[in-house]
């Protein structure tokens, strides 16, 4: 079993170690919840201050032009594009993941007239399921069918218009085969929509090379854009050339927004998927995080992610009552480890009381996210030790950690 001293040696040789200083983390905290909310980059407060006090406070409305506010959704999209394997003109930052999924799923149904079924993963994050249900409820004859991704091929018939899947399972951390699944979906004549919320910034994503048709993702997890930071959407260039229609035809997506015409004419390209004015403060926070990502080697990020999750699994897999749910195979693992324990909720609360922050998903999953830019091997070793102590001492049985209806 690896020692803490050996972990310290790994940290000393870590090519990403310098990035730790780019983030503001409370002393004494081991943060293993970056898969829910990323840590604060140290430069973010100053960037947001500049937008508030200078661009807004001093320059006022002139900043729409002088500070480039109008172009910000495209500019940020071009910066995120390399992180998910997209061409610069195929991605734009706007709205939320839910709103963007509504837009691209509706566009996909319109691109497949005569087909009426949307396939989704029954265990996907609920917003994906709810949006699919809402979209199909608005289209006469359409339906949303939930299946197990392992059984996807059995349902890929001539009525399937689109398939919506998460690249990484938010509960278990399982990584799906994006190229293989996309190829099978497209061979069946359907369109493939990927939710990359739990993979963007955590591991290499290749939307273009995989042949994906559409994708949506958030920026507040591994991309560290901050709570409620804007989402992004991807549309393959072949579909943009066809001029797909999306349902939220707001003025920001109009070809001539300042003509104030009564009829709607969409922009060319990815701009047609914009709806309304961008959230400039949220986008400013995201800017400072992308400054970091443009200096990070993505292959090194993935290598360290796998090393950290390998380490954690090795240290905790034999603990009493623990079942490792996350796949052991690297090609099937995202950047989190999910552990099953019958008393997972109080165990997580006991860890949080010790300064080890993970989270819980009902009924019995403890989730721990591993963010390579600001997490060290020694912190992983310490987190595993805390978990062993909590379980070994029965500390989690303390009534302070009893579940009272809330979910972390």
From TrEMBL:
<feature type="binding site">
    <location>
        <position position="195"/>
    </location>
    <ligand>
        <name>pyridoxal 5'-phosphate</name>
    </ligand>
</feature>
<feature type="modified residue" description="N6-(pyridoxal phosphate)lysine">
    <location>
        <position position="221"/>
    </location>
</feature>
<feature type="binding site">
    <location>
        <position position="198"/>
    </location>
    <ligand>
        <name>pyridoxal 5'-phosphate</name>
    </ligand>
</feature>
<dbReference type="InterPro" id="IPR015422">
    <property type="entry name" value="PyrdxlP-dep_Trfase_small"/>
</dbReference>
<comment type="similarity">
    <text>Belongs to the kynureninase family.</text>
</comment>
<dbReference type="GO" id="GO:0030429">
    <property type="term" value="F:kynureninase activity"/>
</dbReference>
<comment type="subunit">
    <text>Homodimer.</text>
</comment>
<feature type="binding site">
    <location>
        <position position="251"/>
    </location>
    <ligand>
        <name>pyridoxal 5'-phosphate</name>
    </ligand>
</feature>
<dbReference type="InterPro" id="IPR015424">
    <property type="entry name" value="PyrdxlP-dep_Trfase"/>
</dbReference>
<keyword id="KW-0662">Pyridine nucleotide biosynthesis</keyword>
<dbReference type="InterPro" id="IPR010111">
    <property type="entry name" value="Kynureninase"/>
</dbReference>
<feature type="binding site">
    <location>
        <position position="97"/>
    </location>
    <ligand>
        <name>pyridoxal 5'-phosphate</name>
    </ligand>
</feature>
<comment type="pathway">
    <text>Cofactor biosynthesis; NAD(+) biosynthesis; quinolinate from L-kynurenine: step 2/3.</text>
</comment>
<feature type="binding site">
    <location>
        <position position="98"/>
    </location>
    <ligand>
        <name>pyridoxal 5'-phosphate</name>
    </ligand>
</feature>
<keyword id="KW-0663">Pyridoxal phosphate</keyword>
<comment type="pathway">
    <text>Amino-acid degradation; L-kynurenine degradation; L-alanine and anthranilate from L-kynurenine: step 1/1.</text>
</comment>
<feature type="binding site">
    <location>
        <begin position="125"/>
        <end position="128"/>
    </location>
    <ligand>
        <name>pyridoxal 5'-phosphate</name>
    </ligand>
</feature>
<feature type="binding site">
    <location>
        <position position="220"/>
    </location>
    <ligand>
        <name>pyridoxal 5'-phosphate</name>
    </ligand>
</feature>
<protein>
    <recommendedName>
        <fullName>Kynureninase</fullName>
        <ecNumber>3.7.1.3</ecNumber>
    </recommendedName>
</protein>
<comment type="function">
    <text>Catalyzes the cleavage of L-kynurenine (L-Kyn) and L-3-hydroxykynurenine (L-3OHKyn) into anthranilic acid (AA) and 3-hydroxyanthranilic acid (3-OHAA), respectively.</text>
</comment>
<keyword id="KW-0378">Hydrolase</keyword>
<dbReference type="InterPro" id="IPR015421">
    <property type="entry name" value="PyrdxlP-dep_Trfase_major"/>
</dbReference>
<dbReference type="Pfam" id="PF22580">
    <property type="entry name" value="KYNU_C"/>
</dbReference>
């Amino acid at each position: 079993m690896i020692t803490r001293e050996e972990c310290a040696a790994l940290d000393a040789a870590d090519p990403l170690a310098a990035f730790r200083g780019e983030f503001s983390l409370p002393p004494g905290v081991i943060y293993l919840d970056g898969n829910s909310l990323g840590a604060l980059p140290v430069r973010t407060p100053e960037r947001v201050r500049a937008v508030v006090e200078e661009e807004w406070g001093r320059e006022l409305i002139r900043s729409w032009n002088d500070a480039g506010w109008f172009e910000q959704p495209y500019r940020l999209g071009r910066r995120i594009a390399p992180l998910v394997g997209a061409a610069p003109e195929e991605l734009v930052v706007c709205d939320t993941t839910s709103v963007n999924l509504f837009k691209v799923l509706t566009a996909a149904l319109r691109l497949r007239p005569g087909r009426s079924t949307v396939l989704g993963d029954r265990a996907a994050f609920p917003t994906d399921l709810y949006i699919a249900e809402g979209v199909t409820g608005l289209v006469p004859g359409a339906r949303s069918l939930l299946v197990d991704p392992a059984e996807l091929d059995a349902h890929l018939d001539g009525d399937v218009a689109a398939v919506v899947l998460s690249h990484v399972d938010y509960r278990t951390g399982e990584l799906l085969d994006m190229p293989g699944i996309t190829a099978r979906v497209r061979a069946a004549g359907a369109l493939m929509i990927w939710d990359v919320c739990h993979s963007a910034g955590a591991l290499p994503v290749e939307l273009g090379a995989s042949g994906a048709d559409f994708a949506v993702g958030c920026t507040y997890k591994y991309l560290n854009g901050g709570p409620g930071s804007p989402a992004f959407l991807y549309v393959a260039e072949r579909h943009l050339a066809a001029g797909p229609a999306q349902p939220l035809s707001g003025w920001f997506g109009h070809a001539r927004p300042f003509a104030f015409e009564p009829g709607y004419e969409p922009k060319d390209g990815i701009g047609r998927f914009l709806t309304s004015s961008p959230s400039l403060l949220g986008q400013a926070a995201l800017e400072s995080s992308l400054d970091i990502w443009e200096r990070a080697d993505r292959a090194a990020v993935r290598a360290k992610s796998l090393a950290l999750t390998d380490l954690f699994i090795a240290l905790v897999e034999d603990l009493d009552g623990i079942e490792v749910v996350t796949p052991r195979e690297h090609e099937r693992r995202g950047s989190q480890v999910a552990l099953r324990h019958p008393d997972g909720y109080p165990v997580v609360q006991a860890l949080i009381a010790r300064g080890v922050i993970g989270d819980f998903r009902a009924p019995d999953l403890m989730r721990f996210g591993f963010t390579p830019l600001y997490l060290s091997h020694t912190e992983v070793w310490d987190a595993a030790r805390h978990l062993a102590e909590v379980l070994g001492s029965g500390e989690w049985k303390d009534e302070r950690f009893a579940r009272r209806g809330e979910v972390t």
